[in-house]
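Collaborator request, handled under Task 6.
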Amino acid sequence: MADERDRLRKQLGLPPLPTQITTPVVDERTQRAAMAAASVTPTPISSEPKRYYNYYTGEYVDDPSKIKPRTGMGGAESGGGTIDTGQFGNNQPPGPTGSNVTIVSTYTDPNTGDVIAVYSDGSTKVLSKGTKAADAERLKAEADAVARAGRQSAYDLLFQQFDAYGLGALVTPLKGLIESGVSPAEFTIKLRETDAYKKRFAANSSRIQKGLRALSEAEYIGLEDQYQDVMRRYGLPDTYYSRGDMGRQEGFEKFIGGDVSPVELEDRIQTAQRRVLNAAPQIKDALTQYYGNEISNGDILAYVLDPDKAIENIKRKVTAAEIGGAASIAGLGAGRSRAEELQRFGVTGEQARQGYNVISEFLPQARVLGERYAKQGLGDYTQETAESEVFAIPGSAEAGRKRRKLAELETAQFSGSTGVGALARKRAGQF
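Structure tokens returned to the collaborator:
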């Protein structure tokens, strides 16, 4: 038995026991060691009254049956680690503080899995290390690796999506987020917070300020492509759709911010090109004359394409210019206010062209006769009088009667020998 004890002490790195064991003084520590070594009834500490020392808790009890571990010390009562009070039997290795200190119990730490010895002097020692801490570190490392892989995947996907539009450089600065704790779902949010992104998709800020929703990157770039296609088809200079840094087309930002559709853009270009730039020069002159203060440097195309100017308002002004241009082509004239008035009455550019051709045929003679028969109470026959009848606007009926009356007076004066031509028509013609 002694040899076995010495061998165990040697394994634990303890010096061998002296050959002669000194009988220890009977005190609490000695009694705790003795109770751990043999299954005997504890000796009472005092005779009157009889009390026994509970080496598990360090308290005195009056009944030996009460000597047991306190709840929460790791035993079965606490649901924690296990306790073994007889693991070493009579060959318990002495404790770390002396040959008289022995193990009274062992338990397993529920947090770390360590097996811990409790010695008779109340000290403890780890007999074997558990794996719970290592397992926890391993699981944490595995979870971190999975999270990092998720962030890497989110970055790669975002980079691929933007690189397809030539915008990979926008995503590259986010690479550092792979090593951070940012969730993959936040990558797009972080991207949209960068200055480079805000500059590339600047029109979204204007849309939000106007109460419109921000466009996705695909929608935004798709609109740019459609605008460019429209402009190319109508032969606009490439300065209108040239690309800058990261493919930014600054000329399109007003269109996107103003919610201009590709269809509306085409309508604007058609209005400028077909109805003004490629039409008779008198129409362009009239537009410049009427609205020159609104058209910077005479750039009619830029004026028509400005999304801050409503397309319907632009069309009304172009129609007024067409009316003024038609009057000029017919050798007549029409001021801005009269042209706008005729436009409001529904006269179109084509109607104006035909109507002023008719007016130019009889107006000179009608003016002369109006002056000649002024004493008849008919009043002057003016261009506006003719316009009222020809374009069928308010005053048309009265203008027709005046024209026919002048023709009758002229015929009567010369007994039908004078020709009044178009002036004598039943109708001057309405357009």
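The cover message to the collaborator said: "The longest strand covers residues 103-108. The chain has a mean pLDDT of 79. Please let us know whether this matches your experimental observations."
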